Amino acid sequence: MTQPHHPTPSLASLGRVHFIGIGGVGMSAVARIMVARGIPVSGSDAKALPVMTDLAAAGARIAVGYAAGNLGDAQTVVAGSAIRPDNPELAAARAAGLPVLHRSEALAATMADDTVVAVAGTHGKSTTTSMITVLLQGAGLHPSFAIGANVPALGVNAAHGSSGIFVAEADESDGSFLNYRPTIAVVTNVEPDHLDFYGTAEAVYASFDSFTALLPAEGVLVACADDPGAKALAERTLARGNTRVVLYGTAADAAIRLHEDSGRMGISSAAGTFGLDLQVPGRHNALNAAAAFAVALELGVAPETAAAALADFSGASRRFEFKGEGRGIRVYDDYAHHPTEVRAALSAARAVAGQHKVHVLFQPHLFSRTREFAREFAEALNSADTALVLDIYPAREDPIPGVTSGLIAEHLGAGGSLVGPGGEAVQAVVAAAAPGDIVLTAGAGDVTAYGPQIVEALRIEAAGG
Predict the structure, then answer these.
(1) Dist CA 275 CA 132 (whole Å)
(2) Are residues 115 and 219 located together in one domain of the fold?
(3) CATH of the domain at 249
(4) What are the binding positions for ATP in this chain (predicted)?
(5) How many CB atoms within 10 Å of residue 232?
(6) In a domain, 8, yes or no
């Protein structure tokens, strides 16, 4: 069920490394850092992607399409989670007896000699990892980093830094975060998700306990006091008696505490109180910033430097990302694919919209997640003025009988309905929105492509087309 947890190999021991599925955002991140650290890297993917051109320019040997010959003289193979067992390169690697690593194992080897900050949680990982990285860069610490999303503020999703600090997004969805050896573990929240992998909520909680148990004697858990799951994890970790815990949030017992005074956000620690000016909206982003602030203090950054550096953060790609404007209507896109994330994204949209309306085009991701959370998705979507729901994006899953977007639709309020794909969805959004309103496309599938189409349709309409 879980990924194998072998002793972490050293980077040098991997030899020449071949990546199957190198164009993926997580795979390319590891490959990019290996190339920067002097490891001979090759890789392939089913189609040519811009990141592959970047990697080739950096010195990697890149092939488009899968063929056994692409392995060349590789000594270690890294296979992306989407790679099928019958992939010719994977089959050839296994036949040759080459070690085949999961992406997380390759990343663990890459950062084996660094001070590791691993960011875990059901939501907010990419944004929090990005914020920590931007903050540390602003403080002059130059960390290495690997993030599961492209980050406009950084220009790239991974880089080799010069400081011996490595900031990594740690994915709990398949248990692979247990391959890391963090010195600082950040947990933004703990909720049941990925039940297609874990089976039960209890198994999700147990995996986070295993994650905090990886911390060494001098390590620290940085956990959100405002999230019941993270708070409970912190209490269980403290009860084990061998790990220091730092809580952040608005709660009174948080060592790093967020507060608002006369509309201005502030952050307090034992070192004093500092103003917090964020470019990104929403309470969830303020909490992510508090996590980044806590990590910076642990790494010796002066609190006033940490607070000032957070003002440079302009958001992670597909996290309330501005796509354009037409007819006075602003369009944003968000990767939200869990009810809590949808609620947070719509809360941010509401803050930006002010007195105007919010319209969301939502695409459920995975049949299993839709089945587990249909009612919760509907309750989150009902906070929008208009909620249009597309068919389920299957991703890696086969259909489950009886599981459709209709399970969500039956709990939607007056502003909610199912909508067909393509032009039908675009026209439905355009018809619903008025000048000053906010449109949000949300989901982890190809719904992201709708934002530019909606902007284009709005501009054509505004021009009298």
Answers:
(1) 17
(2) yes
(3) 3.40.1190.10
(4) 121-127
(5) 14
(6) no
Residues 134 and 256 grouped into a single domain: yes
**pLDDT range class, residue 354, cuts 50, 70, 90:** confident
Dihedral pair phi/psi, residue 414, rounded to 5°: -60, -30
pLDDT for position 192: 74
The answer to whether residue 214 is domain-embedded is: yes
Instruction: Look up the CATH number of the domain holding residue 66.
Output: 3.40.50.720
Binding residues: 121-127
Backbone region of residue 407 per phi and psi (left: phi > 0; alpha: psi in -120 to 50; beta: other values): alpha
**3 pLDDT band (50/70/90 cuts)?**
very low
> In the chain, how many domains are there?
3
The domain containing residue 151 runs over which residues? 111-312
Residue whose entry in the numeric block shows the structure tokens 């009174």: 252
Residue 408 lies in a domain: yes
pLDDT in tens, 116-126: 999 999 877 88
- For residues 217 and 366, state if they share a domain: no
Amino acid at 128: T
- Per-residue pLDDT tens digits for 261-310: 767 788 999 989 998 888 776 788 889 999 999 999 999 999 999 998 88
The rounded distance, in Å, linking the Cα atoms of 432 and 350 is: 16
Cα–Cα separations (whole angstroms), residue 193 to 180, 182, 227, 254, 397: 21, 23, 15, 26, 15
Binding residues for ATP are 121-127
φ and ψ at 69, to 5 degrees?
-65, -20
Token pair listed for 398: 């086969």
Average pLDDT of the residues in 227-234: 94
